[in-house]
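Thread: quick sanity check before group meeting

JM: Hey all, I'm pulling together slides for Thursday and realized we never actually wrote out the predicted structure for the chain we discussed last week. Dropping the sequence here so it's in one place. If anyone has concerns about the input, flag it before I start.
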Amino acid sequence: QNANIRDQVDKTDQYMMSLADLKGLRAKIICAVSAKTFNEDAISLIRNMDTMALIPTEIMNSAKLNQILEAILALGNFLNSGTGRGGAHGFKLEALAMLSSVKDSKGDTLLDYIVRYHLENKPGVLPMTDMPTLQRSADLSLEGIAESVQHLIDNVTNATAQVGSIGNDPVLANFKKEMEVFAGDAAKVKDEVVTLKNVMTENLQLLMGHLGERNKAARGRQEDTMRMLREFNAEIEAVLKKESDKKAVKAKKGAK
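JM (edit): ok, ran it. Output follows.
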């Protein structure tokens, strides 16, 4: 609105007026910013997806978790023998949280019993050290990863579009050259990200099938599953520490 008084305003306003004259300025700025931040964003995203692709494999291959789950199923069937709930072939993961709430007359929980049994009869099963990546799932969001993947794809699409829109404008020749290099490299990274996302998605769905979940593709349920296993593992660690402390106190008294 004030283009006619450009020579009467200060340098800052003159600069902003000149920017306003540039064709497709906003898209070019977004493209340039994307080029500056793309590698860092892509590396972070790839690391997160690598983690989420690895966790299901660790869980499914965990011999220690399998032994603990088998013991829980056997204990449940023993406690429910003679009832309609006995002879079960499996149980829902939600039942893991109940192991710490069911107590005997001495205040010991079912989880205390299970941990103590394995320490005394099956040394080496606990702690469950064969799922080292599981805890890292607490800091990641499947929805956030999906959004980051889409954002990265949009950045590559925008860069490619900008390169095509510049044409042979000599003023933007250097910018076009830089964006062409960026667009080419980014397209390769995008393909890698999409492939890794597919691997992550497949592994998560395999995990859900492994655990008998019906809605294998539900991100919320996938995250719930990892959360329940994290919390169960944390509860086992707490019981292990309690048992270790008891043993230390007993040894100290014996030494006296």
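AS: nice. The radius of gyration is 29 Å. The mean pLDDT is 92.
JM: adding both to the slides.
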